[in-house]
Design a protein that fits this description.
Number of helices: 6
Largest sheet: none
Distance between the termini: 39 Å
Number of strands: 0
Structural class: mainly alpha
Strand content: under 5%
Oligomer: single chain
Helix content: 55-70%
Shape: globular
Length: 92
C-alpha cells in the first residue's frame, strides 16, 4: 500500500493541485486552530458540544473545515474551550 506522504509528494508536483490547495489554506488553518484549542482544554468534541449547547456532529463539521462558521460561533467555541478568539488580516 502506498503511503499518503508519497502520494501527496506526487500531487505537490502539479501546479494546479498546489493552487487549489493554497485556496483551501485558511479553512485548514481554522480547523487546526479549533482542534488545538479543544485539545489544549483537554475536551472531546462531545464536551465542546455540551458547553456550546449543540451536538457533537456540529463540532465535527466545524473542525472538519467544510463550512465557514460565523464569528458568533467561533466566539462560542472559544468560550467553551476557555480560549480567546483573535481575528487578524495579513498582507496578501
Amino acid at each position: 500500500m502506498t503511503k499518503f506522504s508519497t502520494i501527496r509528494r506526487e500531487w505537490m508536483k502539479d501546479p494546479e493541485f498546489r493552487k487549489e490547495r493554497e485556496k483551501l489554506r485558511p479553512e485548514f488553518e481554522l480547523a487546526s486552530a479549533l482542534i488545538a484549542a479543544r485539545k489544549r482544554a483537554k475536551m472531546t468534541q462531545a464536551d465542546v458540544a455540551e458547553a456550546m449547547n449543540t451536538t457533537q456532529s456540529v463540532i465535527a463539521r466545524l473542525e472538519g473545515g467544510g463550512q465557514k462558521p460565523t464569528i458568533k460561533t467561533l466566539e462560542r467555541y472559544a468560550q467553551a474551550t476557555k480560549s480567546r478568539l483573535k481575528i487578524g488580516l495579513v498582507a496578501a
